[in-house]
Amino acid sequence: MFLIVIYVIFKYKGQTSLFGGKRVSKADATIAAVGEIDEFNGCLGLIIAKFENLPRFDKLTEFFPALQNDLFAIGAVLTGGKSKLDYLDARVSEMEVKIDEMEKQLPPLSNFILPGGSEIAACVHVGRSVCRRTERGIVALAEKQTIDPSIIKYFNRLSDLLFMTARLVNDRAGIKEKIWKES
Predict the structure, then answer these.
(1) Helix (H, G, I), strand (E, B), or coil: what is residue 12?
(2) Whole domain around residue 92: which residue ranges?
C-alpha cells in the first residue's frame, strides 16, 4: 500500500511524476493520454450510476465496473507501472461477444443515427465519444513510443460496445432512433 498525496509541497512547475519518479510536463503525450483515460473513467462512472437502480439493465452493464479497473491498470502501464495487461485480449473478445449479442436484439443499421434518445442512452453516447477521443490520444502516444496494440484495440471495441449499449437502451425504452438526414 502506498500513500497518495493530493497536492505537492514543492514549487509547482506544470509537471507531474510517472511511475519511478521521472518528472514530465503536464503537456507530455503520456500525461495527455492518461488524462483522457481518467476523463473517460469518470464518464463510465456516471454511466454506472445512471444504471444503478434499473435492474432490467443489470445484464447489460454488469461488467462495467471491471472496465473501470482496466482503465486504471492501462493508465498505470502507460506511465511506467508494472500492472499486467495480459488479460486485455480476452476482455476484447468478451466485448465482441456482448456486441454480437446486442446486435441480434436490434434492427440492422442502414444509416447514421443521432446520439440521444433517453437520458441514459445520451450519457452512454457521451461516454462513447470520450472513449473514441481517448483512443485517438493513445494512438498519438503510440506514434511516439511503443504501446501494446491490445490497448488500442481495447478502446476501439469499448466504444463499439457503448454504441450498442446506447442503441439497446433506447430500444428497450421504446425510443425510436433518430436517423441523420443530410442537409
Answers:
(1) coil
(2) 22-172
